[in-house]
Structure formats: structure tokens, C-alpha cells
Predict the structure.
Amino acid sequence: MRDSPRYLKSEAGEGFRNVHPIQPGLRDSTERPSLGDFLCAEGRRTPQGPLPSVNPLDAWLKPTGSGLRATWLGHSTVLIEIDGLRVLTDPVWGKRASPSQLAGPKRFQPVPLALKQLPALDAVIISHDHYDHLDHGTIRELVKLQGVPFITSLGVGAHLQAWGVPPERIVELDWWEHWQHPAAELRIHATPSQHFSGRSLGDRNATLWSSLVIETPRHRVFFSGDTGLTSEYAAIRERFGGFDLVMLEVGAFHPSWGDIHLGPENALKALQHLGGGAFLPVHWGTFSLALHDWDQPAETLLELGPKQGAQLLMPRLGEAVEPAHGEPAKPWWRAADVPAHRRAKPARPARPAAETEDPRQLPPAMPWPLD
């Protein structure tokens, strides 16, 4: 880790850093929201009902006509089927993106299927160690279910090993390094992103964060993990060429977080840096991790994407789609809610008796921002 060009020592301490210059305008003059702002925020932070979803098991039984298929399972969890192989990204089945199951951001949308129903996997990739991307309970179950390798960023393997993943099943990568599947033509590359890491107040930037490229001789897929807009995406395009599928984070953003999160407008710019390709937005529709309306990322993409020539793939949760045959995006998410301009502000639903914990009593170890 200390040999990495991204691991730096300074008067403020040592750890991984974003070493590439941040583009002008990404650090907005808007004051960053406090934890109190987050806890007391009003508005449409969650939908009034469950989002439409489908069980993908029947679809997964059928072969992919094009050789590439993606199934969004919520937030940044996607099952990628690529030329007969299966790769799962940032798997999170937990109820909260938090060190505690009693407090912290709670999932408002369940995963379309149980973890034990997953088909056999060829690799699990984990972009970084934030709670909404690396979930303790999910990893413990994946270890028991299958002998799958875990491909991740430098330092994250310590978490995995502590949770029972055998060291021989853990591969840690620095940017521009790759893992080769021992028995198949599958490569997974760690590539640059612009973010941060940490699961407590005391381990900020102790591990690396990455985007990842999933590659076979026939297809190439890009997965952003979490990132702000960075010109390093142009370097990724120069090295790999175009992508058949691009998955970029679009939710949990704030005007003052432009250096660490994309949001929908900057995701479209990142797509251009990467050379285009079918665009599957992730990191939305599952947890409320910012102050914007829960559906704002999707609505903004639906408005701006076609104007900019983006090929949007916006399937329902659990709906398996092939980028080569993707249908035009439709606002299926509106079935769970009514757009703000068509209705009055909703009343907050009553909380079940079993969940009367004070949401402000967050664990003292929780970092901020939350992801």
C-alpha cells in the first residue's frame, strides 16, 4: 500500500489521496451540509411506496443473445453476465448503510431476490469500503455460499479477511493493475476514481477507492464505484477504447460534493469522457444518502440524456437487459410516487412500533459524508 503512488505522507497524516487536479467548479461555494441538516431535511427523500421490480431468476435461465446482460439489483449492486461469466458489483443486501442495524440510512427498497438465490458467480468486485458498497452481512453470506474470488482496491482485503474470506480468495489492486481469471478469458482492471474511503472516524482514506473495468475479448464494461468528475476518465478511454456498457453513479449528490460524487449532469459528462456506450445509472433508488428528492437523478437523466445523445438503460430493479438490445428509457419509477409538481407535499408516514429508535442517535463511529 505504501508503495502506491496514491499513498502519500503529509503533516496531516498518511493515507490514500486524490492526486489528480480537481476540475474547476466541482468544489461548489455552497456550504457543505452537516449531519444535522441531513437528519432534519424535509422533502421527498423516499418514495411513498415500493418501486416496481421483477424477480430475475427466469431471465437468468435463458442465454444472453448478445453475450452481455446486466441486472440492476439496487443501489450499486449489478449482476453482469459477460460471455458466459457472472460478475457481481458492490453487493449490498443489508437493511442499513451503517455500522449499526438500529440507526443510520435505512434501505427503502428491498433487493428483488434473496442473496441465497444468486446463481454461481465467477467474481465479486468491491470498489471501496463505504457501508453502502461493502456490507458485512452480505460478505459473510457470500463466503458461505460460493468459492468466489473477491476483487477489490488496495487495503480493502483486510476487512474481507476479518469477516472470514480466505486470503487466497482476495485480490487487491492498485489503479491500472488487473486480475486474470485462472480458467477463463476474463480480466478485471482497477482504474482511477475521485472519492475517499473510511468506515469510522479514525480510518479516513486508509484504503484505496477505484473504478473497475470488466473485460473479455468480446465485451468491455465500466463500473464507476463512487467518484467525482475527473479527467482521468479520458485516460481510461485512451487505454481501453470504447465500452459496451457504462455504469455510473448518479444519486446521493450535493452541489458541494462535486469533487467526490457525480450526480446526473456530471455523469453525462463522464460518459462523454469515456467515449459513450450504453449508460446504466446506479447508486440511486435504494438509500437516502443526500438531501435531494429520491427520484431527482432519474428524472434529470430522462430529461437531459436524450438531448445529449446518451443511450440510457434504465431497467426496473431485477429486470435483465442487454445493452445491444436496450429499449428507450421509460419513467417506471413514477409508479411508486407522484412527481412533486403534481401534488402537495406528502406527510411523513408513521413508523412501525418496532422501529421507534431516534434516527439522530447515530453510531459515534459513522463518518460524514455517509458515502
